[in-house]
Prior knowledge:
Layout: H1 8-14, H2 16-29, H3 36-49, E1 53-57, H4 60-70, E2 78-82, H5 88-95, E3 99-103, H6 114-120, E4 125-129, H7 140-150, E5 153-157, E6 165-166, E7 169-170, E8 177-181, E9 195-199, H8 202-211, E10 216-218, E11 221-222, H9 233-242, H10 246-263, E12 279-280, E13 286-289, H11 293-301, H12 332-340, E14 341-344, H13 352-367
Parallel strand pairs: 2-3, 2-4, 4-5, 5-8
Antiparallel strand pairs: 1-9, 6-7, 6-12, 8-9, 10-11, 13-14
Helix pairs in contact: 2-9, 3-9, 4-5, 4-8, 10-13
Amino acid sequence: MAVPFADLQLQYQNIKGEIDGAIANVIRDNAFIRGPYVDAFEREFAAAAEVKHSVSCANGTDALYLAMAALKVRSGDEVITTAHSWISTSAMITHAGATPVFCDTDGTTFTIAPEAIEAAITERTVGIIPVHLYGQPADMDAIMAIARKHKLWVIEDCAQAHLARYKDQMIGTFGVAATYSFYPGKNLGAMGDAGALVTDDDGIADTLVALREHGQRAKYHHELDGYTARLDTMQAIVLRHKLPFLDEWNEQRREVARQFTERLADVGDLTLPNVPEGSEPVWHLYVVQTEAPVRLAEHLRDRGIGTGRHYPEPPHLSKAFSGLGYREGQFPVSERLASRCLSLPIFPGMTTDEAEAVVAGIGSFFDG
Length: 368
């Protein structure tokens, strides 16, 4: 049985009538930039994320940059983040004018290791950006304790963790702000680029509203040196109609993850994801570790089963950050994860038979 890595068409077909009708309304109303459709999505996403303010923007990368701009990050500052993640987090630290300081990763949850954070703090450190990678919450109790001790701000990168919870608290509500990506393949995905920043801080929200639209709070009155980082109205419409299904879709991901965890235990040399007590991941990705991720991926591809590598190049070893002077071996856990990780298919609507086909394909690799 062929199994795609993700099936976005299936998701769309389930609510096609609602989305198509809403897009037609936007065209009818000529409501292409901002307006009531975007405002409605912001209110509804803020409620879902359990925060006061949701400020939508063009993508999750913009959200990270705007968050640091609102916090007045500047040249000479240092911001601590994880050495195992997609590069947007660290890249936006440099775009904000600061220097990314990488930390090693917890080898069982894929998220930043709190003990490594404390060791990386200097007199120039201003903040920490933990990433809730693969939909797995970072250890926010430990991270926030460190932040309070050293008077640092925390921005949570929730790009892969829509509505995950940590000890019964919504992720994204621990730090001063949190950022989300609505890239099409995310748990809540648009039909193009989209993002948002959420916060309970009235001042940060007010600044972000201006920053994302040329620094203006009222048209033609530019109080800040801003940007063009608005959310496209068409994407807001798609997101608004998908949002009511997000809890259900997350639960469907959890069911697939449960099936994988049960059926892949003790298969070959696989190391399966660990879920600490009190953590409620949303399984944006189900990532296993093996000494042969490339060969396993090729074996599954030959059977029509899609996989992904997230992420084979640690940011600190990328050419983009070669000027920072990091060297191979400096973050051994992150580098080991990068060489061993393979993402299995997981998506809302994935059937038991499809999950079993993935399990069988992996079993045949190790049995062969």
